Amino acid sequence: MKIKFILPFLLFPVFLFGEEKKITLEQCIEVALQNHPSLFVAIEDDKKSIANYQIARSMRSIIVDGEIRTVEYTKSNSSADSRFSIPGEDTDIGLFAGLSLTYNLYNAKKDVVEEQARTSIDVAKVTNYQVKSKIIYEVKNVYYSYLLARDILAIREEIYNKYKSKAQLSRQLFEQGSRPILDVSKAEVDLANSQLQLEQAKNNERKMRQSLYYAMGLEENDQIDIIPENIDLEKLPEINCTLANLYRMCEVYNPELRIARLQKKIAQLKITEEAGSHYPTVDLLIGLGCENKKLYGMGNIGSNFEAGSWSPAFHGAIRASLPIYSGGRISARVDSATADYNKMIYKEKEILTDIKNQVRDNYRTLEEMKRQIEISELIIKNAQRHQLLAQRSYENGAGTLLELQDADLNVIQAKIGLLEARYNYLLNFAKLVDTVGFGEGILCRN
After folding, report:
1. Over the stretch 140-180, which tens digit does the pLDDT of each residue have?
2. How does DSSP classify residue 444?
3. Is 91 among the domain residues?
4. Does a structural domain hold residue 104?
């Protein structure tokens, strides 16, 4: 697969120097777009739609077939007043071998079928774009989620070490008679809880790492070591569009809605196609080859293959066929196609409603995340101020070392809320970009 040419380049320094190779979000997306199986499926669907269009276009072409068929000619000595001709008695049975050409002169379905196939190509192209957008969104989603899990894991390790030091200090102070046994018990409980949270953070980091490999279309193994690079959380993207503008952009660019509208068009064309069965089809038939006008029986079978028994032949005819009675089949097909068209109308409305709800939810969530980020930053500032006061109190002899450690822990724990708010902002922003169906550069443009 193509990834075989990409990964060695990306990971070459890992094997050469024994260092971890950091990979950016853009590189992860590039690898996913060149390796994800879903994209290859979409490409095959695109090829299939083009092939189906060629099939539809063939209805306008001359169809040439090789043909061998029997022909009949009336015997010169046949009874003139005979109402019916009996093959072999009143007619001579011959054989024609050559080319048979068929050209459609009129078919009410021809243009409609071609337009359906052309629209199916558009559906395949938009589907291809939709698959790419989904892959990009999934990579962003797990990339941000992995970075969050990794950062929280680092904080949980720091918290665990702090609680471990606090538990040791509490026991020492208890043994010295400075602190009660209750402090020791509480420190041990906090240590156990921090250890549990650390194990949960490790498990979550492993799962997110595995999900990142899956989103890139890779299998995690010991030979490929991808370390996502940190991003600048201080510069979060800003939406410079109103909610009404986002609605209008969705109606134009959202791939799911575009596909639904194209499928509705195909369903409408299907009604016209089925209704075209009420009209006749007219074909021009031409036969060009050689003909033996009379075949001999077993007694003289060799004469059938003599050159003198065969002569050039040319046949031409126009064939028209008109359905007279079909048992209600044509009308039933029209009704079925109409029902499918009505279903697509309702589906389009449902998709549009879901898209607007999703956009509104993401838009408002981004505003809420901004406020949560501001509150989290304020909490960190307050925790740092309290930490400074606890440090000065301890240095002046008024405070204890345990109080100072508690202040340190409050600062570390406050960082988790800020990280979660910032990464949740990025996740919702990525979802909003995916729903709108347009690049984030346009949404953030001033």
Report:
1. 999 999 999 999 999 999 889 988 888 888 888 788 887 78
2. T
3. no
4. no
